TrEMBL record:
Residues at which Zn(2+) binds: D47, D268, H272, D310, H311, H399
Classification via SMART domains: alkPPc (SM00098)
Native source organism of the sequence: Planifilum fulgidum
Presence of keyword Transmembrane: no
Cofactor note: Binds 2 Zn(2+) ions.
UniProt-recorded name of the protein: Alkaline phosphatase
Length: 440
């Protein structure tokens, strides 16, 4: 009798395990693995995104599982060649070339040697390529996959190098493609007209993006960075998910496959401003784009999706202020960035209560009103009041050097498990695609 009982328990346990495995197989985050050749790679970088952002984001959503939770696979070290705390240029260069460089350098080794990128290697193998970003497309992260300059701030020099390498280039930064005679930053060249001559379909708004038909796309939706997700005019500027979907649909027509890098740029910008609501809204937009990539990989069966950050920004904490609390969910009531709210406050600060009530649903105390009114930087003061209400702490307005989580989905995702350096990522992507990728 006892033997039958134990046999029944064992059978039940096996059935339960199989049932749970079936549930996971149907979930968005299941990680089908395989050692066969990967046709397509979608590499997604959440600028400034770390485990603290991922944790606060889960709480922001009401402590519900996220796509990040379901696809966690490893962790990376982020240090640059000359600093334990990297900037975006050095971090992106490491993840594009497999080589450490100094902060501020784009696509170059510390000695100035120009480096081959994983995007360029994919293109040489016959694949289509794309870069998508909510910053300027000439900003440090996208630039590191296609340009070579010693100083990331030289976006005028970066812009001409961005044409011709990616078949799809979507984001902000229109001013860097226009001549000074037309209000741009280029001394003489009109890079938009040059792009048209190279066969690019030029897009300037959301409607044009959604109707895009060309095989090569240049979408410049803002003069500089695109609008924060909290402040975005949805009738004019596309979302990161919409740009990602259009990029995939354009690139997938190449039978040899594609490489696509997608950056959620403004997670970082929210972190620099200690604006927890902005950072969480950008993380939400990034997850939506991640879901677009995973849904495609699910249907396609030959696509690898890899997601990570380039560094942590702001030293965000989960809880703080000497209390055992977190109320990240209240950030869902915030409908504008701190910089937008600060711009609505009059010089004397007589309408501070009204502005915070309207855009953050917060009834300020007298002490908080004075804190904002007397601050040298009202934007930062607003953000710190809101962060304190949410029990989200900050240690900096710059970057920190903590290790970052890596997420992966699809064929080849087994290559991205465990501890890695950020320089390992492009090498393993090349391994998955079975393409040659070596520095000379």
């Amino acid at each position: 009798m006892r033997r039958k009982l134990w046999l029944g328990v064992l059978i039940f346990a096996l059935v339960l395990t199989a049932w749970n495995a079936g549930l996971l197989a149907d979930s968005a985050g299941a990680r089908p693995e395989g050692h066969g050749k990967v046709q397509n790679v979608i590499f997604m970088i959440g600028d400034g995104f770390s485990a603290a952002y991922a944790t606060n984001y889960r709480l922001y959503k009401g402590d519900r599982p996220t796509l990040f939770d379901q696809t966690l696979s490893g962790m990376i070290r982020t240090a640059s060649a000359d600093n334990a705390v990297t900037d975006s240029a050095a971090a992106a260069t490491a993840m594009a070339t497999g080589v450490k460089t100094n902060n501020d350098m784009v696509g170059m080794a510390p000695d100035g040697k120009k480096l081959k990128t994983i995007l360029e290697a994919a293109k040489e193998s016959g694949k289509s390529t794309g870069l998508v970003s909510t910053s300027s497309v000439t900003h440090a992260t996208p630039a590191s996959f296609a340009a070579k300059v010693p100083d990331r701030d030289d976006e005028v020099a970066i812009a001409p190098q961005m044409l011709g390498k990616p078949d799809v280039l979507l984001g902000g930064g229109k001013q860097f493609f226009l001549p000074e005679s037309e209000g741009g930053k280029q001394p003489e060249r009109n890079l938009i007209e040059e792009a048209r001559a190279q066969g690019y379909q030029v897009l300037e708004n959301r409607d044009q993006l959604l109707k895009a038909k060309g095989k090569k796309l240049l979408g410049l939706f803002a003069d500089e960075g695109m609008a924060p997700e909290l402040d975005r005019d949805k009738s004019k500027e596309p979302s990161l998910a919409e740009m990602t979907r259009t990029a995939i649909n354009t690139l997938k027509t190449n039978k040899k496959g594609f490489f696509l890098m997608v950056e959620g740029s403004q997670i970082d910008w929210g972190g620099h401003d200690n604006d927890a609501a902005w950072a969480m809204k950008e993380t939400e937009a990034f997850e939506e784009a991640f879901r677009v990539a995973v849904d495609f990989a699910k249907r396609d069966g030959r696509t690898l999706v890899v997601v990570t950050g380039d560094h942590d920004t702001g030293g965000m904490s989960v809880g703080g202020y000497n209390e055992y609390k977190n109320r990240a969910e209240i950030l869902r009531n915030v409908t504008a960035t701190g910089q937008f709210m600060a711009a609505q406050i009059d010089e004397k600060g007589s309408n501070i209560r009204e502005v915070l009530k309207k855009y953050a649903k917060i009834d300020l105390t007298d002490e908080e009103v004075e804190q904002i009114r007397n601050a040298e930087n009202r934007k930062l003061a607003i953000n710190r009041v809101i962060s304190r209400r949410a029990y989200i702490g900050w240690t900096s307005t710059a970057h920190t050097g903590v290790n970052l989580p890596v997420y992966s989905y699809g064929k080849g995702s087994d290559l991205f498990q465990g501890w890695m350096d950020n320089t390992d990522l492009p090498k393993r992507m090349a391994q998955a695609m079975k393409i040659e990728f070596k520095q000379k």
